[in-house]
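Lecture notes, part 5. Sequence design as translation. It can be helpful to think of inverse folding as translation between two languages: the language of shapes and the language of residues. The source text, in structure tokens, appears below.
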């Protein structure tokens, strides 16, 4: 390890052009000239391919390209101090300090350990300043070898200890749907930790389930980041830990900032610590321990309810759609009689003309009934988990009960929202009483559920249910009567809402509106299904438009955006609007308006064509649940083309006008033969 870097592998104050590939080739040539690689071109190609997957620029004017390839014969570290700096994809600008790590194919994870150690050293401002001030190549070698622990000095021992025991941050991510933001934020935080030399351990509380972090890992962590829009499950596990809490989108937009804030809380003598009370009651704090505003509190509890409601709707809607596919559109008239009176060994003889025979009729009836029962929990689950978001577990039973009452009274999802808030606040209020010691054990399991259920459900029966039911009936009648221009206008509005913040609160309002009405749809009243199709189609437009734009004019996008564009094809097709977030985050003033226009047009077209969807999610992959699927696709294609053309026009016009944003420092470099490598 003593010869990992030598003076011959150091290039000082050289002009290597304006492209990162040229810098990588120069460093690869230096390594090959010293006999450490048998092919400079092979090493350069491997490092450039890695660079195209994910740019290696990090904040502070630093880049760390690296590769593990059979072209390398001896582990090597080459360094260039550039004048002028070259763009390696860092958000804060080009890099003037470039370290290239070259490892042989059989080196295992040694080069990753070296990368981690070097990254930790480059976070230190005094080390970076010394590199920029060094007058000779030997000074650079001395500084780097000391930082990497290759010299028997007190400084080396300290550095080695820090490298062996990096600081650790726990990151918990969760969003209302638990589909995209949750995992994107976790990946961004983990990547940020890798770049900073911090061990970031993530826990995603998403729709596919949660694997809790081992308590011993939590106990050993320095701090915790909660990047969440809903309540954290089992938050008491983190009691006593320094922490920061922010919306899940902050974990995508500024992951390094969140990690730094969490460690700053850990280092501060009076930094925020998660108390047992805060862990049990999220309403007591929101952003870094500060008092939560009324608006933020309502948003959080409502999104908590929506996040737990969506699985009921998703499973139920798809099963009902499958029931219609197998049993025909008149399956609701036969389903209950078939499932109760028949079996696989006693197939029905009476069923609709559109059923796929007696087997299709029976299986369709079973799927429809399961889906219908799942959908019947929609309002109760919404109310129950809104109450849970306010009062924790004691609020669940009163919330479910008042939700069931709202259904019985015909108050619909509006009644579920109001009832859930009512049950939650009553349960929270009762729980705030200082009960005698002998009564405390009964409070959460008997007293609070009993009293909160009685009061909230009693108010829903005697006071609120009737007026809310009348309001719901009026709203349903108004929606059912919408035709022509009025329906198109509604589609335009819903479509624009789906694109304005790409999975944020406005997007969730439009989506929740569609999902909440899905259960009310029928062959005789298809408007709720039309609204669902409108929302789904419009939500697919932004990522598809960005994917199309990067394919048509790749040179005006960064390498990272081009890679995101490839992934956006699949994300858009699956109705994951968040696929456009990386583009909107770096260029919101052009991407968001273009997305809103295209999504609005798509929404208006789907309503005009009376396209229906009985599935709440899935995009083109739930084609069997979408009526007039061809018109559904036409609407999406038109909106996608409009948004793509607009975003390209805005980018090109602004560039020609000489006003480029911070994300447009340079055109993307030419794509090499390895440019089809995709991020795993």
């Amino acid at each position: 390890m003593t010869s990992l870097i030598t003076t011959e592998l150091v290039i000082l104050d050289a002009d290597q052009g304006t492209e990162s590939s040229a810098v990588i080739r120069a460093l690869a040539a230096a390594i090959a000239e010293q006999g450490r690689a048998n092919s400079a071109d092979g090493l350069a190609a491997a490092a450039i391919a890695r660079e195209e997957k994910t740019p290696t620029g990090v904040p502070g004017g630093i880049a760390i390209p690296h590769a593990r390839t059979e072209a390398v014969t001896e582990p090597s570290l080459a360094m260039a101090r550039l004048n002028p700096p070259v763009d390696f994809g860092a958000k804060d600008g080009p890099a003037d300090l470039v370290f290239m790590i070259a490892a042989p194919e059989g080196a295992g994870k040694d080069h990753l350990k070296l990368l981690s150690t070097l990254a930790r050293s480059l976070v230190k401002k005094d080390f970076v300043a010394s590199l920029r001030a060094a007058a000779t190549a030997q000074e650079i070698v001395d500084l780097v070898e000391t930082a990497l622990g290759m010299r028997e000095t007190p400084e080396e021992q300290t550095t080695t200890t820090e490298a062996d025991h990096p600081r650790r941050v726990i990151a918990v991510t969760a969003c209302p749907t638990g589909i995209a933001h949750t995992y994107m934020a976790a990946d961004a935080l983990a990547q940020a930790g890798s770049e900073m030399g911090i061990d970031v351990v993530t826990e995603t509380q998403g729709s596919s389930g949660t694997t809790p972090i081992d308590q011993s890992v939590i106990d050993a962590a320095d701090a915790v980041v909660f990047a969440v829009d809903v309540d954290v499950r089992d938050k008491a596990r983190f009691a006593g830990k320094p922490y920061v809490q922010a919306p899940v989108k902050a974990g995508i937009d500024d992951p390094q900032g969140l990690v730094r804030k969490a460690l700053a809380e850990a280092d501060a003598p009076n930094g925020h610590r998660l108390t047992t009370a805060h862990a049990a009651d999220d309403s007591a704090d929101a952003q870094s321990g500060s008092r939560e505003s009324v608006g933020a509190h309502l948003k959080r509890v409502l999104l908590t309810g929506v996040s737990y409601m969506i699985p009921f709707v998703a499973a139920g809607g798809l099963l009902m759609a499958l029931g219609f596919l197998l049993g025909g559109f008149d399956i609701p008239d036969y389903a209950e009689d078939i499932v109760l009176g028949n079996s696989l060994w006693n197939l029905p003889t009476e069923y609709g003309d559109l059923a796929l025979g007696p087997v299709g009729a029976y299986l369709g009836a079973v799927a429809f009934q399961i889906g219908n029962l799942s959908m019947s929990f929609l309002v109760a689950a919404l109310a129950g988990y809104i109450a849970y978001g306010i009062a924790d577990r004691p609020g669940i039973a009163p919330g479910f009960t008042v939700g069931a009452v709202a259904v019985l009274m015909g108050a619909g999802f509006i009644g579920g929202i109001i009832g859930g808030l009512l049950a939650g606040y009553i349960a929270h209020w009762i729980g705030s009483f200082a009960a005698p010691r002998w009564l405390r054990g009964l409070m959460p399991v008997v007293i609070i559920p009993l009293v909160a259920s009685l009061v909230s459900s009693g108010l829903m029966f005697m006071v609120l249910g009737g007026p809310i039911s009348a309001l719901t009936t009026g709203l349903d009648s108004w929606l059912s009567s919408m035709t022509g221009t009025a329906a198109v206008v509604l589609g335009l509005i819903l479509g624009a809402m789906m694109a304005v913040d790409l999975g944020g609160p406005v997007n969730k309002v439009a989506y929740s509106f569609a999902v909440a009405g899905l259960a009310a749809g029928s062959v005789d009243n298809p408007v709720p299904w039309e609204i669902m199709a409108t929302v789904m189609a419009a939500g697919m437009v932004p990522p598809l438009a960005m994917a199309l734009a990067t394919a048509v004019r790749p040179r005006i996008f960064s390498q990272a955006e081009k890679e995101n564009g490839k992934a956006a094809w699949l994300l858009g097709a699956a109705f994951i609007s968040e696929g456009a977030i990386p583009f909107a985050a770096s260029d919101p003033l052009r991407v968001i308006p273009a997305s809103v226009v295209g999504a609005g047009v798509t929404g208006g077209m789907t309503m005009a064509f009376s396209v229906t969807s009985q599935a709440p999610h899935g995009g083109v992959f739930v084609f069997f649940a979408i009526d007039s699927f061809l018109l559904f696709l036409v609407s999406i294609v038109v909106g996608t083309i409009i948004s793509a053309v607009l975003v390209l026009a805005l980018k090109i016009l602004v560039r020609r006008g000489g006003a480029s944003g911070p994300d447009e420092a340079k055109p993307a470099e030419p794509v090499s033969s390895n440019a089809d490598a995709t991020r795993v």
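The translated text above is only one of many valid answers, since several sequences can fold into similar shapes. The two ends are 31 Å apart (CA to CA).
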